[in-house]
Design a protein that fits this description.
The chain has about 140 residues and is mostly helical. It contains seven helices and two strands. It has a two-stranded antiparallel ribbon with strand order 1-2. A hairpin with a 2-residue loop joins β1 and β2. α2 packs across α3. It is elongated.
């Protein structure tokens, strides 16, 4: 069965999403940038926050901030403080530290992978740590 030129049983693809016709407000663009840097799609962030994907799209297209009850979970999902989430001009502070160890470098590289791949690595590491604790 077809609807227009799309098949009804064909899943939605982001490649065919409607293109923006007007410039994004600064706060919406900031939110979209944070989401993309976290390696999340709008749908993945929506699933984490238990909202519709259209809600995420609205926040990214508007100048209105997300509702207060989702600010903390959203900040955690995006890996930033709430202050950075709400202020497009804010930059996350980086702590100065000494030389980086092998594990820290590895996990920094890991943070550049898509969220699903990160989750799989975390599962393996968590299982290994649990096994090591149990064998002590």
């Amino acid at each position: 069965m077809t609807v227009g030129s799309c098949r009804k049983d064909t899943p939605y693809h982001a490649d065919i999403a409607r293109k923006l016709t007007k410039k994004r407000p600064k706060s919406g663009a900031h939110l979209a940038d944070l989401r993309q840097k976290a390696g999340l799609t709008q749908q993945e962030l929506a699933d984490i926050l238990d909202v519709h994907q259209q809600t995420i799209a609205y926040w990214e297209q508007s100048d209105k901030p997300p509702r207060s009850e989702v600010l903390l979970p959203m900040a955690k999902a995006l890996g930033v403080p709430v202050e950075v989430l709400l202020d497009p001009e804010a930059k996350p502070e980086r702590k100065k530290s000494g030389p980086k160890g092998k594990v820290q470098k590895l996990f920094e590289d890991l943070s550049q992978l898509p969220r699903r791949q990160q989750d799989k690595v975390v599962e393996v590491v968590a299982a290994f740590i649990s096994q090591q604790k149990a064998s002590r």
